[in-house]
Amino acid sequence: MSDMKTAILDAAERRIQAGGFGGFSFREIAEDVGIKSSSVHYHFPTKEDLAAEVVRRWTDRTSGNIDREFAKDPNAKRVWAKALRGTAFSKAHMCPCTILGASSQDLPKAVAAEVKRFFKMCQDKMVAQGMSADDASEFLSTIIGALVVANALRDSGEYDRATTTFRVGEKTAA
User: Fold this and answer.
1) pLDDT tens, the chain, 174 aa long
2) Which long-range contacts (CB under 8 A, 24 or more apart) does 18-24 make?
3) Using an 8 Å Cβ cutoff, are 30 and 37 in contact?
4) Is the pTM of this model over 0.85?
5) What SS3 class is residue 36?
6) SS3 label, residue 118
7) Cβ distance 21 to 34 under 8 Å?
8) What's the DSSP call for residue 104?
9) CB of 21 within 8 A of CB of 51?
10) For residues 103 and 151, what is the distance between their CA atoms, to the nearest angstrom?
């Protein structure tokens, strides 16, 4: 992937994390990256294409991170809670899939499909890591909900309070 395409994706990811699908335009992405809007269109013909690629990249990156962490720590709930904690304490405070998931019924088809793929990937990995389908669904709802509440209250510590039970025995300091 070219450096420019990566820069465009990075800028779009930040804007989606802050304002969802409606929270960015090609003009704003171009300004963020220091190029003309037509250059954004060169890499991503439509806003739908760009947002779908942002979500696809996030899903693939998250999947890889979870696999690497699970190889080091077999406690799936601790691994997942810790992974989303990183998002809660990041500059953006939110996972773009969480932001988009709340409005997925109104998203363009390709973007909604990628958001669905993210949440399905999470559930499938949780089940593969030993959780029942019901437990995976409940746990995913808990950690995603904790992320939303922490963001809404503008208090990342709220995520820790909601997930302390799952993060017991965490190998790295908070």
Assistant:
1) 689 999 999 999 999 999 999 999 999 999 999 999 999 999 999 999 999 999 999 999 999 999 999 999 999 999 999 999 988 888 888 899 999 999 999 999 999 999 999 999 999 999 999 999 999 999 999 999 999 999 999 999 999 999 988 876 665 444
2) 18/92, 18/94, 19/99, 20/99, 20/100, 20/102, 20/103, 21/47, 21/51, 21/100, 21/103, 21/107, 21/108, 21/111
3) yes
4) yes
5) coil
6) helix
7) no
8) G
9) yes
10) 16
Please report the domains of the chain, with CATH numbers, ordered by start residue: 51-167 (1.10.357.10)
Q: Hunting for tokens 């990342």 — which residue is that?
A: 156
Q: Which residue from 62, 74, 68, 133 is spatially nearest to 98, judged by alpha carbons?
A: 62
C-beta of residue 56 within 8 angstroms of C-beta of residue 31: no
